[in-house]
Amino acid sequence: MRLNRRTFMGLGMVATRGLARRSLAAAADNSPHFVPVQPELFAASGGQPNCWADFDNDGDLDLFVGFKADLPNRLYRNDHGKFTEVAGDLGLADLPDTRAAAWGDFNADGHLDLYIGFSRRSGMANYIATTATASTSPMSPKRWAWM
What we know:
It contains 1 helix and 11 strands. By secondary structure, it is mainly β. The chain starts with a helix and ends with a strand.
């Protein structure tokens, strides 16, 4: 999915209070106005790195958020504007202090992979969660392998 600046800004932003979406209703002074999106899902504080990508190839951008120590990382799958947290199902809900995250096709198989980096103090090795085979369901935990 290719985005221009206007489309990207329309998707919203991640802020300290969670995910917000730009409202179609302009404020009286014509400044941007943001409204919360699923505040019950995005209420957790402690988020550090985050990155957007369409990891399940459904045309919707999904969001990975790494968290500080002792809080599980989260992967929010976007299904036509409704987000669902799926990191636990995919084995990505790590508890160490997460400091880096990036999507890319690291093994050149045509599927997005996720690099996750941790703080040195955590003692956890950085890894790449990469698609193992194209024959399994995109949401299957067996689809992910660690390099």
